Amino acid sequence: MSENVWAYHVTVDRITDVDLAGYKVEAADGTIGKVDKHSDEAGSAYLVVDTGPWIFGKEVLLPAGTVTGIDVEEKRIRVGLTREQVKDAPEFIRDQHLESTDYRQLLGGYYGIIPPRWL
């Protein structure tokens, strides 16, 4: 997907002083939820997305390398994934996985091998 799945792709114009919380997140085939939390930490950037009723109210952790575009005016983030790819990702439990190096390696491997859908 990118050389470092935990960094924004060079074609994404990420403005670091913009808070992404509340932004709508869209996959290639539909909405997946809204950003609840995000980090721009170098080499470890991510989005925590609240999926609402779509995946029974669960959250997912998306590495920044999955982001294909950010529209600040529309408060919308596009990711180069399908809804199914997000749904099939390793389960994310915030209290256990947010700071877990093992989980990030697992998730990075999962998203690193999925063919991208650059929009």
From TrEMBL:
Alphabetized Gene3D superfamilies for the sequence: Photosynthetic Reaction Center, subunit H, domain 2
Domain of life: Bacteria
Protein name per UniProt: PRC-barrel domain-containing protein
